[in-house]
Amino acid sequence: MKYSKMLILLLFFFVYNGGYSQDTLSIQIRMLSKDERPSLSYYTDSQTYPIRVHYNQNASYANDVKEYAEIAYSYICSEIGFQPPPEDDLRGGSNAYDIYIYNLGNYTNGQAIAEVPDDWEYEWVASYIVLLPGIPDEDLADIVAHEFTHACQLGYSYADFEYDPITDTAPGKWFYENVASYYSVQVNPIDNKYTSHFGTTCGPLRYPQWGLDQSYNNYDGLLWPLFLSEWKNCTNIIPLIWERMGQNPGANILEDIDYVLVNSYNSSLSEALLKYAEWRYFTGDRDDEEHFENAELYITSEVTQIYTSGYPVNNLNVSGAMGIGGVHFIDCFSNNNEVFNFSVSIDPNYTQPMDFGILEVKYDPEIDRLRKIELNSSNQGSIKGYVRGGENVVLLGLSLNSVSNLFHKFYYSISAPQERAVAFYTKWEDESSSGYLNGKLLIDGITEVNSGDYFGLSYLTNYNNHTVKVSSERLADVNYIYKHNNWNGGSSQYLLSHSFNVASTGNYDKEGIYNKLKIAIIRNSIEGLNFSNNVGIQFNDPWYLKNAQGDQSAMNDFLSVTSPYYPTGAYNQTTGGVFLDQNVTFDPTRPYYSVQAISPQDIALSQTGKTHRFYFRNWSGTSVNFQNENNPSTGVVFNYD
Question: Does residue 590 sit in the same domain as residue 611?
Answer without folding.
Answer: yes
